[in-house]
What we know:
By secondary structure, the protein is mainly beta. About 10% of the residues lie in helices and about 30% in strands. The chain contains two helices and ten strands, in the order βββαββββββαβ. The strands form three sheets. Strands 3-4-9-6-7 form a five-stranded mixed β-sheet. Strands 2-1-10 form a three-stranded antiparallel β-sheet, with no helix packed on it. Strands 5-8 form a two-stranded antiparallel sheet. Strand 1 (about 1-5) and strand 2 form a beta hairpin. The mean pLDDT is about 90.
Amino acid sequence: xxxxxxxxxxxxxxxxxxxxxxxxxxxxxxxxxxxxxxxxxxxxxxxxxxxxxxxxxxxxxxxxxxxxxxxxxxxxxxxxxxxxxxxxxxxxxxxxxxxxxxxxxxxxxxxxxxxxxxx
Length: 119
């Protein structure tokens, strides 16, 4: 996932959580989220939580045209975030500090490059 506005890579490896189970589990139970990794949750209904997580994350809500519409940098474990913006298509979860380091802000245009793994 790339921030086209800032010409910065947000994550090189970003699996998509698109089933009810994968969206519920998200990043729970992991030891960390390595730099260059992320999780794209689609669709993004309601809010997100960091229950049972062991590390802070950056979270960005994204519209259907892949623009950042809300951000929660350095969201700590055991929190719920439900942004006021209700037209979110997806939420991107990243290691804490990525949004700040890349200068990502509300209104930035993102680009997704899909890579098929396996045969």
